[in-house]
TrEMBL record:
PROSITE patterns: GGDEF, RESPONSE_REGULATORY
Source domain of life: Bacteria
Domain GGDEF span(s) in chain numbering: 185-322
Protein keywords: Phosphoprotein
Residue ranges of coiled coil: none
Full protein name: diguanylate cyclase
């Protein structure tokens, strides 16, 4: 592999020449320098052999019957797709025009026949150096790409829970407002807050508090069943759920299911006046976005609804638009 190449390593060299004698001479010179040789006597065969064997370097005759060496170079460059195999042209002619055409076709150097072993050795060393430098450059680029991906992950995700952070939630909310506006579809947003979490921390300690936040986060992640649903940590013990294509009644049903799932998970709360287990309250807002809809406006409405849910006794979601909480909706439904 190129990435592992060191300057001392032997190369696999593809020699392309329609005449047997220059091929033999090149083979002898290359083998005396410790390189491995592949041979091709025709242009199409050379491209096929290149594709099969992926040599480290190509010695390419210019004048051949049918397609010439420039054609072979162009085929190889097109087939490499971002790769780079050094191509040295070998020709009886070495006028400026010839050299220019060779470089234009994708060649890296142009040598005149007959070539001496010393010159060939020097040219190969130069190409090997370039290969090593290129491999290092690729390695650095890959490291940079990985570091960038890590930075992106850090800038959009919360370290404790692995959920999207506030910045990523805000960005997605803007995107979904625009998407739902285009589609004419409802968008629901929920802000959630664990009930009496200060008491949890004060009783069980911050480490247990962190573990509880992780458990709730996992539960919210699992609750995002549709591809466009998103759960994020909005800050502290507050979470956000973005539910595109979800009308207000659907959002209420979703919220009730979420509370049931949390109740079933039965995460013990050491000091909650609401229940022996962890509960949460949520504020819901739903709209079909129009030109006047903003992320800030939706967040404010969801926060207002969350305040209502807390005021009405916690362990429930309140919908801003329905002016109803999940408890009231449950009783309404059971009366029907
Ligand atoms: N363990 C832990 N605690 C956190 C973290 N972030 C915020 N908190 C705690 O969450 C608690 C939030 O307390 P409050 O805002 O008073 O709310 P609450 O006690 O949940 O009361 P209500 O929301 O009214 O039910 C504070 O004690 C914060 O220290 C965190 O990352 N880890």
């Amino acid at each position: 592999m190129i990435a592992m190449l060191s300057i001392q390593e032997s190369l696999t060299v593809l020699v392309v020449d329609d005449q047997a004698v220059p091929r033999l001479l090149a083979r002898a010179a290359l083998e005396s320098l410790g390189h491995r040789v592949l041979e091709s006597a025709d242009p199409e065969g050379a491209v096929r052999l290149f594709m099969q064997s992926r040599p480290d370097l190509i010695l390419l005759d210019v004048e051949m019957p049918g397609h010439d060496g420039y054609w072979v170079a162009r085929q190889i460059r097109a087939a490499e797709q971002g790769g780079w195999t050094p191509i040295l042209f070998l020709s009886g002619r070495n006028g400026d025009e010839e050299v220019w055409r060779g470089i234009e076709a994708g060649g890296d150097d142009f040598l005149s026949k007959p070539i001496t072993t010393t010159l060939l050795s020097a040219k190969l060393r130069a190409m090997q150096r370039l290969l090593v430098m290129r491999a290092k450059l690729l390695e650095r680029s890959e490291e940079l790409r990985a570091a960038n991906a890590q930075l992106r992950e850090l800038s959009t995700h919360d370290a404790l829970t692995g959920l999207c952070n506030r910045r990523a939630i805000d960005e997605r909310l803007h995107q979904e407002i625009a998407a739902c506006r285009r589609e004419g579809q409802p968008l629901s947003l929920a802000l959630l807050d664990i009930d009496h979490f200060k008491r949890f921390n004060d009783s069980a300690g911050h480490v247990a508090g962190d573990a509880c936040l992780k458990q709730v986060s996992q539960l919210l992640t699992d609750a995002c069943l549709r591809p466009r649903d998103l759960a994020g940590r909005y800050g502290g013990e507050e979470f956000a759920l973005i539910l595109p294509l979800t009308p207000r009644s659907g959002a209420m049903t979703y919220a009730r299911a979420l509370l049931r799932t949390l109740a079933r998970a039965a995460i013990p709360h050491p000091d909650s006046p609401v229940a022996p287990n962890v509960t949460l309250s949520g504020g819901l807002t739903t709209c079909v976005p129009d030109e006047a809809t903003t992320a800030e406006g939706l967040l404010l409405r969801a926060d207002d609804a969350l305040y209502q849910a807390k005021a009405k006794g916690r362990n429930r979601f309140f919908s801003y638009e329905m002016q109803l909480d999940t408890e009231e909706q449950l009783h309404q439904n059971s009366r029907l």
